Amino acid sequence: MPGRRLPPLNALKAFEVVARHMSFKKAADELGVTSTAVSHRIRSLEEWLGVKLFNRLTRALELTKEGEAYAPLIRDGFGLLADASDALKESSDGGDLVISTTMSFASNWLSPRLPFFYEQHEDLRLRIEGSDLIADFTRTNTDVAIRYGEGGYEDLHSEMLFTDLVTPVCAPELAARAKEPADLLSLPRLDYQWSGFGGQDPSWEKWFRAAGVDNATPDRAPVFSDEHMVISQAAAGRGVALVGIVAVAEAIKEGALVRLFPVALENRSYYFVCQSHALNRHKVRVFHDWLKDEAICFDALIRDNPKLRFTTVVRSEAL
């Protein structure tokens, strides 16, 4: 009805985010403001409504009876606004689907499969944004992210695609010099340490233990922060690289690289991630269904292809 007064939108959004996280700090991080600003917005909304929405306890927040009744209504309201905006955007942006993923996954796994996607969906255009930074759906135009991690993406829809297996690979001419795992100690190596690398992640020392080579102390090797870069070095014959099978499966299948031994370290997994309401959008659903089918085919490829099949898989953090 024309003329109806509404509370300030930024105050309503602050309430929705605080009610979802039950934390001023987490809400401030999501909104990109200070905790004090969030607190002021909540108080202004309470004053506008004339009711108290939160009980501020010593170390926690608690919704009041009025707050509990108000929160789902505001959440649904923002969901309707998002759906309406998405529908308008989709009709005006030519159907572009913005996908955020790591540089390595975009280059080595997704790109080789995109021609098959376009054969089925000629009317849909994809825009791939390669970045190792986590996509922020609230501040960017990202529709879908393919993330590498442990899962548990709060307040987002996520589905595991497949788990990565880390194993040594090299060019065919170098592979001829590796008859058994211990031989890798005398070959030039290439180290890859991804963002956030820590003690629980795969390493050469852990792989040697999994392969039955005890007390192995590999010599120092050049370290690369980008997986695609170290794979390129390995394909050029400059050393043996310890990398994820997801990134090198196509190169192994085509003969550009060789998986040396059927021993792998189980690492993190790849996840399809989007905002929950985005699954109602045609272009997101189409890509989701195609990607899930491709993930199933990839699992079958690893299981059935002798060049890629593993007989020993060990959890990295168990070593």
Describe the structure.
This protein has 3 domains: 9-92, Arc Repressor Mutant, subunit A (Orthogonal Bundle), CATH 1.10.10.10; 97-162 and 270-299, Periplasmic binding protein-like II (D-Maltodextrin-Binding Protein, domain 2), CATH 3.40.190.10; 163-267 and 306-318, Periplasmic binding protein-like II (D-Maltodextrin-Binding Protein, domain 2, 3-Layer(aba) Sandwich). Helix content is 42%, strand content 20%. It is built from 10 helices and 12 strands. It has helices at residues 9-21, 24-31, 35-49, 65-92, 103-120, 172-175, 204-210, 227-235, 245-254, 282-304; strands at residues 54-56, 61-63, 97-101, 126-130, 144-149, 157-170, 189-192, 223-224, 240-244, 258-259, 263-274, 312-315. Strands 3, 4, 5, 6, 7, 8, 9, 10, 11 and 12 form a 10-stranded mixed sheet that branches. A two-stranded antiparallel sheet has the order 1-2. The longest helix has 28 residues, at 65-92.
Strand-helix topology:
Layout: H1 9-21, H2 24-31, H3 35-49, E1 54-56, E2 61-63, H4 65-92, E3 97-101, H5 103-120, E4 126-130, E5 144-149, E6 157-170, H6 172-175, E7 189-192, H7 204-210, E8 223-224, H8 227-235, E9 240-244, H9 245-254, E10 258-259, E11 263-274, H10 282-304, E12 312-315
Parallel strand pairs: 3-4, 3-5, 7-8, 7-9, 11-12
Antiparallel strand pairs: 1-2, 5-11, 6-9, 6-10, 6-11
Helix pairs in contact: 1-2, 1-3, 1-4, 2-3, 5-9
